[in-house]
Specification:
Helices cover 45% and strands 17% of the residues. It is built from 17 helices and 16 strands.
Length: 462
Amino acid sequence: MSSIDESLLTGEPVPLAKGPGSTLAAGTLNLEQPLVMRVERAGAATRAAAIARLVERAAAARPRLVAAADRLAQALTYVVLVSALAAGLYWADPWVAIAVLVATCPCALALAAPVALTTAAGRLLGRGVALTRASALEVLAAATDVVLDKTGTLTGGRFKIVRLDLLGNADEIECRALACGLEVSSRHPLARAFDGAGSVAVAEVRIFPGLGMEARAAGRRVRIGSEAFCRELAGAASGFTLEDAALTPVFLADERGWLAAFLLQDALRAEAAGVVAALRGAGLQLHLLSGDHPAAVASVAARLGIAAWAGGATPQEKFAYVQRLQREGRIVAMIGDGLNDAPVLAGADVSFAMSEGADAAQLQADLVLTANSLNGAAETFVLARRAMRIVRQNFAWALAYNALALPLAAAGWIGPWEAAVGMAASSFIVVLNAMRVGGGTLDARTWKASTSSYLSPSRSYS
C-alpha cells in the first residue's frame, strides 16, 4: 500500500491510498512505499497525454473576444498613426507625434481579454477542469439551461447487479455468460456490472449508441440493452414490470425470444445534490435526459428536484430536445459522459464530458472534468461569469484611457515620457485586474443568471 498524489490530473490535493488491484495513472506521484505495477497504457495512450492534447487544442483556438480585441486594436493602430501624423504636422513638432504614438499604444486593449481568459483556464485546470476550447467561457457566462445525463454523470456509474429475472428457458449461468460476452467490449458504465462473470465467445459485435449491443453467440443473434431494442429481435413484449424505480433494467434476448432482465443499481454521486442545488440557485434551468428506463430517470429527477426530464431517450431524441431549447432562444450547456452523448455534446452551445467517459464524448466536449467530479462544472459557471465581467471592465478601461490620452497627446499637453508612463500604467492596470479572475470563492449560489423563468415540461419517451 502507498499514498498517491493525483493533483496533477484531478486537482484533488488529498493523496489517495492505492493497493493491489488499484489503477496508477501516469503523471501521478508515489509518496510512500515502492510499488510494483503492470503497465497497461503508455505514451500517447495515457490519461496525462490525453489532458495535454486537450489543453493544446484549447491553446490553438481563438476566442471570439480575443479576435474582436485584435480587430479593435488593429483599427485603433490606424487611427493613432493618422492622428500622430496630423498632430506632428499641425504643431510642426515631431515630439508631439511621438507622444501620440506612445500614449495610445493599443497594448492594454490587446491584453484585455487574453490575460483574463488564460488566468481562468489555469484556475480551472487546478480545480480539475480542462478547457479544450477557449471560446467555451464566453458561452458559459451566458448559459441559461443545463442538460444533464444520468448514468455516469449524476450517478457514479458503478453499477452492480442486484437481481436477475429469467424471462425464458435459459438458466442463470447461461444468461450471465452471454451478457458478459457481449459487454466485455463496451466502455459503457452499465457494462462494468458484468465484469468478473464467465463469458462465452461472441463475434460480429455491433454497438448501437443509446440502445445496446448485438453479436452472434452459439450460432444465433443475441442482443443486450433497452427493452425496445431487444424487442425488435425477440419479436414480442417481454411481459416484465419494473417494481422498483431506483433500479435500472438491462434486457437480454435472442432470435428465439426473451432470455433475462438484469436489474442494476447505481448510487447518486455524493456531490450531485449540492451541485444541482447550486446551479438551480444560480438561475439556470435544469433538464435531465437519459436513455435509461423512464421509471429510473423519474426517481433520480424526483430526488434531485429536477422537473424537466426525459427517460428512454435515444441520442437522436436527446439532440432534438437540445435543438428545441435552442430554437426557443436558450443557450444550452450539456454535461454527459457516454458514446450516446457525443451528438448532443456536439450540438449544445457548450458542453462538459466526464474524464472516465467515452473517448467520443471527450472529443466533442468543450471542457473535460479531469477530476471526474461534478463540483468542477458548477465552479466553471461561476468562473466564466467572473472572467467575462472582468474582460468587460478591461475593455472599458482600455477604451476610456485611449479616448482620454489621444486628444491630450495630440494637443501637446503631455510629452513623450509622460505618455510612456501612462501607457505602461494602463497595461499594468489591465493585467492586475485580469489576475483577479483567479481569486475569490467559486460558489455558484453567489450569482444569478440573467434569464427569464423557463422550465420545459416533464415527459418520458416510450
